[in-house]
Design brief:
This protein has about 220 residues and is mainly α. The longest helix has 27 residues. The protein is flat and about 60 Å long. The protein is about 80% helix and about 0% strand.
């Protein structure tokens, strides 16, 4: 796909700027129960203790980012929520890239704008939990999955593996999304095998992408 024009990039920047402003508003509001519990039971631990703490409530990658944010800017509601906000804005960018490759630039602009204005996306971007990080890595994972199936190259499947790791380390339920992509890949392999159009790279490279991603999460 050809590179985006300057006008398209400008529209994307304006949409991301709007999204950022909407998410910064009241980012410093008082924290609620789940956010406070995350601080007390995970983020306030030492680094080694955080690594050894296993819980569905422990969104590893997000909580590490929160700890870095606090170390850099001090502890306040907005610094605790900053990683979720940044992941949320990045998700809009990733969705724009995905939508542009699948449906074209106009649809990408509309999709990104809808996400920028979405109440739920704003809410989760102001919630100090790992859900926007999960959305980001899942969106990028789907992007590289589609790229890898269209053009089986190492770089696409290495990027896919890293997205798999990022999603699962952010929230364990991320595994279900990538397992679903695994079943989709198997369906494509079976379909092409039955039609006699199956090529080795479509089998070997995706398999290695799933394998590397899976091993890194263990």
């Amino acid at each position: 796909m050809k590179s985006a024009s300057r006008t398209d990039i400008l529209w994307l920047v304006l949409i991301l700027a709007l999204a950022t402003l909407l998410r910064l508003w009241k980012l410093d509001a008082p924290m609620w129960h789940d956010e406070i519990q995350t601080l007390v039971t995970h983020v306030h631990f030492r680094w080694g203790e955080m690594l050894q703490s296993y819980s569905m409530n422990h969104h590893y990658l997000h909580n590490f980012a929160v700890k870095l944010s606090i170390a850099a800017f001090g502890e306040a509601p907005w610094t605790v929520r900053l990683p979720a906000m940044l992941f949320g804005v990045a998700t809009i960018w990733a969705t724009w890239v995905l939508a542009r490759e699948v449906a074209g630039t106009a649809i990408a602009h509309v999709t990104a704008l809808l996400l920028a204005l979405s109440y739920h996306e704003i809410w989760f971007s102001q919630n100090a939990r790992g859900y926007t990080g999960l959305a980001l890595f899942s969106t990028l994972g789907l992007l590289y999955f589609l790229r890898g199936m269209k053009a089986p190259e190492w770089r696409n499947w290495i990027a896919f593996a890293l997205c798999l790791v990022g999603a699962v380390f952010t929230h364990l339920t991320g595994a279900f999304f990538f397992v679903a992509l695994g079943f989709l890949w198997l369906a494509v392999v079976l379909s092409r095998a039955l039609r006699g159009t199956l090529r080795a790279p479509v089998v070997r490279l995706p398999f290695l992408g799933f394998l590397i991603g899976g091993l890194l999460t263990i």
